[in-house]
Each structure stands twice: as C-alpha cells, then as structure tokens.
Amino acid sequence: MLRDVVSSLDLSVYPTIAMVLFIAVFCVVSFRAIRAGKTGEHDQVAQLPLREDVPELGSGEAAR
Question: What's the predicted TM-score (pTM) here?
C-alpha cells in the first residue's frame, strides 16, 4: 500500500525547489560579500584579532 502511494507521487518538483533555494541563498551571500567590501566592513572585522581591548578567554567574564 505504501509503495503504491509513494510511486504515484510526483517528486520531480523537489530538486527544482532545492536548486532555486540554493541559487537564491548563493546570490544573497555573494551580494553581501561584495557589498561589505565596498563599505569597509571587511577592514573592521580584519582588525579584531589585533585589538587590545578584547578580553582573553582565560580571564573573568570572557571565560563563561
């Protein structure tokens, strides 16, 4: 009975939905990466490991 139900379903739409979803997410991520480069966001994030005001992991509140 279950085999009859599954065989009668048209499952060809799922790969199409997955491809459209993948392309949409890829475009959004690419757009944000390109836009962030123009606004200088990458420069701010690149300086994070070099900043002195970031607490170390082994001390006080940062360890929690």
Answer: 0.54
